[in-house]
Amino acid sequence: MRSTPTERTREQLEAVAVAGLGTVSFVRSALEVVGRAVPFAAACVATIDPRTQLATGAHKVGTMADVAPAEDELWAFHEYVVDDLYDYRDLLERDGGVTTVHRETAGDPLRCLRYENFFHPTWAVTDELRAAATVDGQLWALLALFRDDGTRVRTFNEAEMDFLSSVSPVLARGLRACLVTSTVAALAPSGVVDATDGGADGDGGAGLGTGVLLVDLRGGVLSANAAAGARIAALGGGPVGRSELPMPVQSVVKAARRFGQGRRTWAPRVRVRTASGRWMVLSASPMAAHADGAAPAIAVTIEDAGAAEVLPLLVAAHGLTPREQDVVALVLGGSSTAEISARLHLSGWTVQDHLKSVFAKVGVRSRRELTAKVFTEEYVPRMGPGSTPGPSGFFG
């Protein structure tokens, strides 16, 4: 039986997801495939830290391909600060993890503040279709497709929403796989970075020190230490104080505003991989103004991520089940099969079955290769002139 056009499109997307591409190349290829089934004027894929559900980067094609950093700041403002009808995290509560502006506003898109004050006046957008790219219960990316005045059909229909819902897990698996891809060194344009990129940004792996910035509520830099400049550059940003902050910083700054307003129960924190493969952790917190007339500010810290931050994300990127992740954590800690069996209350045979599954997913054949892979991917890149491991034996 011949496959339908929709099935063929899904098969093509599956092939792209397992092709071992870097993030930028994968996004472009995937959106080219998606566009054959669901035409659009512009599209954006925002990568997400699955633990905190904060955006770590954005890749755009079409009429939005040359979005200025200031417009990324406006996007973050509308997603994290503005109390709108819905934002991308609300997709997790929508049927199929998908919705459109016209669906949310009952055909009156001007009810959506993001549409009225940003998308429509900036790009003449007529509709936006959003899909949450989730797999194994975790959100890895947001896919947004846009139509405008130049699109033949200006709104998205139910069939197109159903299609995006059906393929969004494929996009999530593909982006998750990019975390463990080693072929992205030449793919990141102009220092574009996010939680899935790797490559060479010239930081050399040596310790940069903890970057500290004090920013105003809009994200303008009030002060910064010397290390902040190097950190921002590694994240693809320009000179501190003379250019807009990169997307990961905008995310934590805007989320900190929400936290300060009592609309978020925990201070924002996000893991980001730079273009050199270096992992960093960004966090932000609102500061109390003690001087009369002092304007509110937000403190941002940027530092190297330690093993406790990176390894869970790396393990999840391989698609391991929670129990497989438990087994891997103990293997990396040097536990024997008998010790793992006792610790997890599993039979030795079950532990071995979990290990076989882990080896197949990670692409290794033994415990030694598994440990070596983690060492090669997450330890060696941190070694460099002047770098020294901490008490745990891990850099950062």
Automatic annotation (TrEMBL):
Matches recorded under InterPro entries: Sig_transdc_resp-reg_C-effctor, Tscrpt_reg_LuxR_C, WH-like_DNA-bd_sf
Ranges of residues in domain HTH luxR-type: 313-378
SMART domains: HTH_LUXR
Organism: Kineococcus gynurae
Chain segments annotated as transmembrane: none
Record's protein name: LuxR C-terminal-related transcriptional regulator
Keyword list, A-Z: DNA-binding, Transcription, Transcription regulation
